[in-house]
Amino acid sequence: MVIFSSCSSEQQPAARPAETVRNVAVLAVQQASIPDPLEAVGTVRAEQASQLSSQVMGNIVEVRAHEGDHVQRGQVLAVIDDSQPRAAVDRATAADGAAQQQLVAADSDLVLAESTLKRYQSLYERKSVSPQEFDEVRARQQAALARRDMAQAGQSQAKAALAQARTTLEYTRIRAPFDGVITEKKADSGTFAAAGMPIFTVEDVRRYRLEATVNESDLRYVRTGQKVPVAIDALDSTGLQGKVVQIVPAADAASRTFLVKIELPADARLRSGLFGRAQFSRGERQALLIPRSAVVERGQLQGVFVLDQNKIANLRYVTVGKPSGSDIEVLAGLQNGERLVTKPGELDLNGKRVEAE
């Protein structure tokens, strides 16, 4: 019986030393004090806007303005059929003329009655007429005075009816209440206009304001007259300097927010409906800031190369906040005092030894 025996030992390969990359900029992360702004979002509105509605019933026979048209105060924008109101004016004018004639006749009768009474007064004092005759003349004077008063009242009523008829006739003309731009037209020629039906919206495009909402817990940072920077996303990055002109005193019961109205400087690019953000100061807070150049993109993720105790770089994904100049805030993923590569560029430093420059 032959027994074979053998012994062997397998030698494990030695770990390869990490590749060394030299002259790399490295920075130790430190907390810094940064401004703590309160951002309030809102919508740009014209400071003066008016919705024009019909005050009478009738067919719209003419529309003289459309969206985008610049209009002047008092300009006729639309015409409603005025045949019935104009007939009412004619009737009221005739009634006013008749009332005027009645007043003239009543005045003449009163003048005659007063002169007659004056003569009979003299005769009565000389006992030339009987008391009954004098009383009859005085009664006629009182009756003439009453007729004159009634004629005056009738004329006043006729003038009031005429003024009302002319006002109703004027309502058939939809006029611009101020200089501005038509931003909305809701009716066309041939549309039947009911009382209260909106027809146009006119805005004063010279003055705009941002209407932003602020939580009830943050309202203490807002005050009337305060200057605040405003950013309009649709415009370029140049900030606007706004001024708080009104804080609506009642909070919205559903959202627990207050409406803050911020006056904006004149800018031809402003339009109603644009999205805007206002920033109110809440003082300062501590934050971790790193150079924006230290952040590398991996798909939808952001990461930085962090050095361990052996100066080995490891890619660590972080959560970043808003940029601040050339720096950016790190919200999660880094600790105060950790060292990272500030300008990795296109280099893949993961697992490599880094020698700082």
Q: Secondary structure elements and their pairing?
A:
Blueprint lengths: L19 E5 L1 E3 L2 E16 L2 E5 L4 E6 L6 E2 L4 E5 L2 H43 L5 H40 L2 E3 L4 E6 L6 E2 L4 E6 L4 E8 L11 E6 L7 E8 L9 E7 L11 E17 L4 E3 L2 E7 L5 E12 L2 E6 L6 E3 L11 E4 L1
Parallel strand pairs: 1-22
Antiparallel strand pairs: 2-21, 3-12, 3-16, 4-11, 5-7, 5-10, 6-9, 7-8, 9-11, 12-15, 13-14, 13-16, 14-15, 16-20, 17-18, 18-19, 18-21, 19-20
Helix pairs in contact: 1-2
Could you walk me through the main structural features you see in this protein, from its secondary elements to its overall organization?
The protein is an alpha+beta fold. The chain folds into 4 domains: 20-35 and 286-356, conserved putative lor/sdh protein from methanococcus maripaludis s2 fold, CATH 2.40.420.20; 39-47 and 204-283, Efflux pump adaptor protein, beta barrel domain (Elongation Factor Tu (Ef-tu), domain 3); 57-80 and 172-203, Beta Barrel (OB fold (Dihydrolipoamide Acetyltransferase, E2P)); 83-170, Orthogonal Bundle (Helix Hairpins), CATH 1.10.287. Helices cover 23% and strands 39% of the residues. It has helices spanning 83-125, 131-170; strands spanning 20-24, 26-28, 31-46, 49-53, 58-63, 70-71, 76-80, 173-175, 180-185, 192-193, 198-203, 208-215, 227-232, 240-247, 257-263, 275-291, 296-298, 301-307, 313-324, 327-332, 339-341, 353-356. The protein has a 6-stranded antiparallel β-barrel. It has a 4-stranded antiparallel beta sheet with strand order 4-11-9-6, with no helix packed on it. Helix 1 (83-125) packs antiparallel against helix 2 (131-170). It is rod-shaped, with a radius of gyration of 44 Å.
